[in-house]
Structure formats: structure tokens, C-alpha cells
């Protein structure tokens, strides 16, 4: 059985290679494409006002990557009193790799523990709730689409309830992208033999892109089997993603933590 890794590139290839190395056959089938934000100047302005921010919360590795990619050359240091928050270890690792050379110290990086059962805003908040947020300025560095950023609504509400000022800055843009001919062929195989494939979803938006963009484009480009959702299988890394997969009609939906070891264990264990 082949695991279809639907993360954006290059994460999709990295995860497929890592799973295969653990004896779990996997192939990359990205459902999200990462591109520059519609207003790159917003990121530059955030860099210019970093010292006035108590915390920057980065929603994903892509948010970190694009934030530092769009750094104005004249700004070469991370302010000593500005925290960097991440919802999980993957985002935290990228933050340390890119922020460390600019002065971001490990003790100023806030993230759930590596063995946390979940990596999301709810898991991050207990590490932040004890601080004084009255009058503090917070920026949520996120992705989005052409219409603007998609910040963390729940987390923003927690900060605002404690007197903080919160604003979202779009550091990158998420689009469905376009499948290559090889990826189209892989998708047709998955549709023709749903029992031989497992879709690994780490984003609800990936499921939306699959249903609303990729499958219609595949049907228009070449003959493709209609999705047999009751026979299709999904492995999801968050309860909300699992809910979206069930809503689409996946017949078997399982959930696991968004770590390599958890995905490997879930794939090796029986349903």
C-alpha cells in the first residue's frame, strides 16, 4: 500500500523519502503550492518594526522560510526582547536554523514539547498563557490566498482577551498548483485502486484543493476514474483535518500525530 504525501514541496519529497526509508512505501503528491505573498512589503514592514513586537507566531515552516526570505538586507539582527512562537517542532527547527544566525536565542523560541500529543495553537498556548500580554503587540506570520492572510483565530482571541494587540501578516500564498504528468498518472492510479493507497493529509486546505481543483482538472485533462470515496483511505494529522476528510466521504479515516514516527506507526498498525 502506497502512502500519498500531500504536503507542499519540498516537504512532500522529504516526507516520502523518510517514510520509504522506514519501510513505508510513499510517494509525493502535493496538493498545495507555496508562492510569494501578494504584498511582500507587509513582511518588510514587519521586519522594520520587530523591536516593537513582543512575539511573532509562525504558523508553519513555510511561514518561517518566506519571512526570512523577504528580510530586508539592511536588517541583520533579531531583537533581544522579541519572542518567536511555533506550533510544532518542525516550525521550531526552521526558526532556529534561520533565526539563530541573526541572534534568535533558543530560550526565546516558544513551542510545544517534541512529545506533545498534538501540535497546534491549543498545544502552544499553555506555554504562553502565563506571560503578561497587556498592551503587547503580537504578529501572526501566516499563509493565505489572493484575498489575504489566514491567521489563527482562536489563538488571536486568547491574546486579545489578555489585552494584547494582534495582527496577521501574510508571508506566503497557498494555491492548488498544477500536477505534473507523472503526478496526474499517480493520482489516476490512486483513484483506480483506492484500497492500495492511503492519502496522508496535514492540512484541511489540501483536501479542499483535491476536491475543488485537482480532481476537476484531472478529469478535464484526461480520462480519470471517478472518486470512489467510500473505498478511499485517509490518514490525518489533526482532528479538524479528519473531520474534513469524513465530510468529503472518505470511507476510512484515521488520525495520528504529525510526526514521522507516528505516521510510520499508524501505517504499520492494522485499522
Protein model, in words:
- With 271 residues, the chain is of the alpha/beta class.
- It folds into two domains: 2-32 and 178-268, Rossmann fold; 35-174, Rossmann fold (3-Layer(aba) Sandwich), CATH 3.40.50.
- Helices cover 38% and strands 19% of the residues.
- The chain has ten helices and 14 strands.
- The strands form four sheets. Strands 2-1-12-13-14 form a five-stranded parallel beta sheet, with helices on both faces. Strands 6-5-4-7-10 form a five-stranded parallel beta sheet, sandwiched between helices.
- Helix 3 packs parallel to helix 4 and helix 8 packs parallel to helix 9.
- The longest helix is centred in the last third of the chain and has 18 residues, at 204-221.
- It is globular, with a radius of gyration of 19 Å.
- The two termini are 13 Å apart.
- The mean pLDDT is 93.
Q: What tags apply to this protein structure?
A:
271 residues; alpha/beta; Rossmann fold; 2 domains; 5-stranded parallel sheet; globular
Number of domains: 2
Fraction of residues in H or I helices: 25-40%
Task: Please tell me what the overall shape is.
Answer: globular
Count, helices: 10
- Identify low-pLDDT runs: none
CATH topology of the largest domain: Rossmann fold
Mean pLDDT: 93
Class by SSE composition: alpha/beta
How do the strands and helices of this protein lay out in sequence?
Blueprint: E1 2-5, H1 11-21, E2 26-28, E3 33-35, H2 40-48, E4 55-58, H3 61-69, E5 83-85, H4 89-99, E6 109-110, H5 121-124, E7 137-142, E8 144-145, E9 148-149, H6 153-161, E10 165-170, E11 173-175, H7 181-192, E12 197-201, H8 204-221, E13 233-236, H9 239-248, E14 252-255, H10 260-268
Parallel strand pairs: 1-2, 1-12, 4-5, 4-7, 5-6, 7-10, 12-13, 13-14
Antiparallel strand pairs: 3-11, 8-9
Amino acid at each position: 500500500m502506497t502512502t500519498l504525501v500531500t504536503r507542499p514541496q519540498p516537504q512532500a519529497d522529504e516526507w516520502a523519502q523518510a517514510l520509504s526509508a522506514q519501510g513505508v512505501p510513499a510517494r509525493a503528491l502535493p496538493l498545495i503550492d507555496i508562492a510569494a505573498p501578494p504584498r511582500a512589503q507587509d513582511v518588510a514592514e514587519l521586519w522594520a518594526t520587530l523591536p516593537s513586537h513582543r512575539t511573532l507566531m509562525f504558523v508553519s515552516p513555510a511561514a518561517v522560510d518566506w519571512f526570512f526570505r523577504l528580510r530586508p538586507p539592511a536588517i541583520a539582527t533579531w531583537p533581544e526582547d522579541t519572542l518567536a512562537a511555533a506550533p510544532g517542532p518542525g516550525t521550531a527547527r526552521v526558526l532556529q536554523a534561520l533565526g539563530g544566525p541573526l541572534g534568535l536565542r533558543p530560550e526565546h523560541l516558544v513551542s510545544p514539547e517534541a512529545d506533545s500529543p498534538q501540535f497546534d495553537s491549543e498545544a502552544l498556548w499553555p506555554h504562553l498563557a502565563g506571560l503578561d500580554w497587556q498592551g503587547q503587540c503580537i504578529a501572526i506570520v501566516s499563509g493565505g490566498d489572493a484575498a489575504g492572510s489566514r491567521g489563527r483565530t482562536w489563538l488571536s482571541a486568547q491574546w486579545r482577551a489578555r489585552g494584547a494587540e494582534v495582527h496577521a501578516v501574510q508571508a506566503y500564498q497557498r494555491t492548488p498548483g498544477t500536477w505534473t504528468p507523472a503526478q496526474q498518472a499517480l493520482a489516476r492510479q490512486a483513484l483506480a485502486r483506492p484500497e492500495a493507497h492511503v492519502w496522508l493529509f496535514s492540512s484541511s486546505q489540501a483536501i479542499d484543493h483535491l476536491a475543488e481543483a485537482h480532481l476537476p482538472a484531472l478529469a478535464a485533462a484526461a480520462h480519470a476514474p471517478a472518486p470512489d470515496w467510500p473505498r478511499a483511505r485517509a490518514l490525518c494529522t489533526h482532528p479538524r483535518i479528519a473531520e474534513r476528510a469524513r465530510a468529503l466521504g472518505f470511507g476510512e479515516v484515521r488520525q495520528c500525530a504529525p510526526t514521522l514516527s507516528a505516521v510510520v506507526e499508524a501505517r504499520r498498525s492494522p485499522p
